[in-house]
# Entry
Amino acid sequence: MNDPKIIIALDYSTAAPALALAERLQPELCRLKVGKELFTAAGPAVLEKLMQRGFEIFLDLKFHDIPNTTAQACKAAAELGVWMVNVHALGGRKMLTAAADAISNTSSKPPKLIAVTMLTSMAQEDLVDIGIRATPAEMVLRLATLTRNCGLSGVVCSAQEAAMLRKNCGAEFILVTPGIRPAQASLDDQSRVMTPQAALLAGSSYLVIGRPITQAADPLQALLNINKEIGVVL
# Structure
């Protein structure tokens, strides 16, 4: 598979279980996501070990700071050799533009730079709590449009907004969708979820999947089953 659609979330507190899981998977079937918990605990070394095993890495640190700080963080991430890195769209136009410029000016192959619109754990009442009166869909569209206009490659969004964003942001705009749960899987702490096949049909580019694979008795078989499930739309 030249462009695996599944990104497995390595939500671990130490490197050992993440590396153990990687040994049970195949890099041609998936990519891996390293987030704040694992990166804080294990640092760049865990990225290097995973990439040595052939995996492409989505470094999910959601940078959100003043433009210069965010730009330098994105540049540092690019120099680690990761496949994808992200920032928070709520950082605004100046921050997004600075991040995009920093990524494009790296000497190595630039990673894909995407922005988080709204966390999939959030619902309407969460927006109200922080003083935002827009609906989740309105908020996501506004932030995705800003992200595209600032020159980033795409966004993280709920699969429930994928069709809307695909229509408004174009065919090449990357939509990375967490909150993906195969049929019969637990929702865990996600509020806005969709099955893998439905998400791709709606316009998602890549699917972030964690516990349905990482906590399976046979993670490789779970991955193969999901790839089979989405095969009709690949």
Remarks:
- The chain has one domain: 6-233.
- Residues 115 and 155 are 5 Å apart (CA to CA).
- The longest strand covers residues 57-63.
